From TrEMBL:
Alphabetic keyword roster: Membrane, Transmembrane, Transmembrane helix
Protein name in the entry: Energy-coupling factor transporter transmembrane protein EcfT
GO CC field: plasma membrane
Primary site of residence: membrane
Keyword Transmembrane part of the UniProt annotation: yes
CDD domains xrefs: EcfT (cd16914)
Superkingdom field: Bacteria
Subcellular location: Membrane
Transmembrane segments annotated in the record for this chain: 15-45, 57-75, 95-113, 125-147, 225-243, 263-284
Topological type in the membrane: Multi-pass membrane protein
Length: 293
């Protein structure tokens, strides 16, 4: 199955990833944690295939297992004592439950962030921030551009100095130090000169003037508005359920979970739809692609 969610407008993608990471981190209910983890696993599988998704899952699971084991060893709160450590500290059921919850949260968050990094590229992030924070967007674009650019400049300078025998691998220690200072001086001078040229270019193009437009590769289509509407509906339902304590989970001093009601079932369904939204979008687009004729 192809990942058709990556072809949608960045606004829908940004709202989804912001919401799913926030819900995963702040809603500790077992239903939320389980389906958030399942949604992240399935979407990773759609994005990169079974092999790479399992590799990513194992890496994320390592952090989750470490936290799950570490919490009962360090935290001894809770009313249900299962055993005692050799130093006399108790092992409680509540600390184990909290460790499992925290481990699942960390694992799900890492998986969702890996999905985010594959979709939300620099051009999409700049598209989201250009209309609201144009100056910040310019700085961000320059930073993202200068990181690989500076690496190439360092390689170019080093190759030139190597050709004339004044690099870091020739001569005694003092001569290598002087060569390193020369390379650094050339790099700083080149970078400052390029920064002045960039500033003059942006001023000539009218950056910062009122009414200036900016070019974007993306545009909002009907499917993007539908996606935003569904995400807004599911997110508002989950927020309302959290406000009404339908996702309530108390671990210390004893594990207490909110009672199951018709509204909480509806809220769980809304969260499942939210967590599996990229999967449902890919399934729908796959069906439309195969059976459009």
């Amino acid at each position: 199955m192809n990942d058709f969610f990556k072809d949608y407008n960045p606004w829908g993608q940004g709202v989804f990833f912001l919401g799913i990471v926030a819900f995963t981190m702040f809603l500790r209910h077992p239903v939320v944690q389980v389906f958030s983890l399942l949604g992240a696993l399935v979407y990773n599988w759609i994005q990169v295939g079974l092999g790479r998704s399992l590799k990513t899952f194992c890496m994320a699971l390592g952090s989750g297992v470490f936290i799950s084991i570490l919490n009962p060893l360090l935290v001894h709160q809770g009313a249900t004592i299962l055993a005692y450590f050799p130093n006399g500290n108790p092992l409680t059921l509540e600390s184990i439950f909290f460790g499992l919850s925290a481990g699942a949260m960390f694992t799900s968050t890492i998986l969702w962030l890996s999905c985010h990094n594959r979709i939300m590229t620099s051009d999409r992030i700049l598209y989201l921030s250009a209309g609201v924070f144009p100056s910040l967007s310019l700085i961000l674009s320059m930073v993202l551009r200068f990181v690989p650019l500076y690496k190439e400049r360092i390689k170019t300078i080093y190759a030139c100095r190597l050709g004339i025998g004044e690099d870091l691998s020739q001569g005694n220690l003092w001569r290598r130090f002087k060569n390193a200072l020369k390379i650094f001086s050339i790099f700083v001078t080149w970078s400052l000169e390029a920064s002045i040229e960039t500033a003059d270019s942006m001023k000539a193009r009218g950056h910062g003037l009122p009414g200036r437009t900016h070019f974007a590769l993306f545009k909002m289509e009907r499917r993007d508005w539908v996606l935003l509407g569904l995400l807004a509906f599911c997110a508002s339902t989950c927020i309302l359920a959290a406000y009404r304590r339908k996702f309530k989970l108390v671990i210390y001093p004893m594990v207490k979970i909110a009672k199951l009601t018709s509204f909480s079932i509806f809220a769980f369904g809304a969260f499942i739809l939210f967590a599996f939204m990229p999967v449902f979008v890919s399934l729908l687009e796959e069906y439309r692609w195969k059976y459009s004729k």
